[in-house]
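Late entry, evening session. Most of the bench is empty. Finally got around to the prediction I had been postponing all week. Sequence below, unchanged from the version circulated by S.P.
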Amino acid sequence: MQNEDGRRLRSVVSYVKRGGRMTVGQQRAWEEHWPRLGRTVGELPEGPLDFAAWFGREAPVMVEIGSGMGETTSQLAAAAPELNYVAVEVYDPGLGQLMLRAEKLGVENLRLLHGDAVVLLTEHVEPDSLHGVRLFFPDPWPKKKHHKRRIVSPSFAALVASRLAPGGTFHLATDWENYAEQMLEVCSAEPALRNRYDGWAPRPKWRPVTKFEQRADVEGRVSHDLIFEKR
């Protein structure tokens, strides 16, 4: 299926567009910070997004897909001021909370994009341009009939690989064993990617423990990291 411009539309997406009322603080963050920090994927002009102009500097670009409520994202951006850090998320209150966290930490190297990461990568990111892509604890869609909605697929791995600069990294993490195995199989089959490790990557000490990992530990699930790099 295509739109009137001839661009292919996806019939299955990996996320549910959740509603949710924003807190007073989150609403304030939107009003005060979104005009400078945020953009909506569906409203971007055609062609590649000029990250250097948006950030006001040339720096390696790291894209994190699915920043959730922003606790991990804000800390990772704060810990890597040398990166132009881009968070992509569909949940409005989550983006509001991320802006609040970034404000508290004094983060200056963070920009936010509201919308579909696949559309962003496909239509607004130049090939061979990204320092890295991070995908931490995406929706696992645990029911077998919903596995087709998982974001990690052969086409997605190929898309990410095409946008990474040579040597750029694709870092994934999940606490669902079946999904971890799928991630490993899919990314290992992508010719443009090379696994940095023989299977799972050691859990990086720099990655904060998320609420999802804490919950997984309580429920007896093991988190797995995978780090692939562009050949």
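Two things to note before I forget:
The helical segments are 24-37, 51-55, 71-79, 92-105, 117-124, 154-163, 177-189, 211-218.
The chain has one domain: 24-230.
Will write this up properly tomorrow.
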